[in-house]
Amino acid sequence: MVVICTSTTVPINTCNDVASDVLTPAEFWEVLEHKCRNPATFVKSITSSRVVQEDHDKTGQVTSLTRLVTVNGGEHEIEEIAILKKPVMIEFRIPSTGTSIKNILSRGAEQMHHPTDIYMVSTYEWHHPEVEEGSEEHKKLTEYYWHMSNETVKHTVAVAKKMKAEGKLADLMKE
């Protein structure tokens, strides 16, 4: 059995961004919350999803939700539980496989002087009881997961930027 762990860090804002494209931590958190309810826009392999349970704290803030997703057009729904720790982290757990994915909104070292110095950090943990440690399959899966996690994180940031440019982010923040 192997457990494959990867992580990726991507800047949300860069020095090349025009002022209107810069995302604040609050705006990016709204994107992450939206991703919980609407993951297909952000994760290419997810073809559909539906929220079946939502929990809130006494202030009304969402603290967790359970969704059922289909992947790559399949018929089988996979249960995912999202634990929201506003304003910094959402952990997605897939009970049937032990998979854990964390989306973290991280502030950079220059945050005091540059409030938009923020990053998306994602960590992934995939369990493969059928794969032998050090095997060719282990090496192939590790490489696949590194590539996939990198692309998913970059895509999430790109979607957030597009949402802001199209004015959709302002609508999310009103909800």
Automatic annotation (TrEMBL):
InterPro entries from the UniProt entry: AtaL, START-like_dom_sf
Domain of life: Eukaryota
Listed Gene3D superfamilies: 3.30.530.20
Protein name, UniProt field: Uncharacterized protein
Organism: Talaromyces proteolyticus
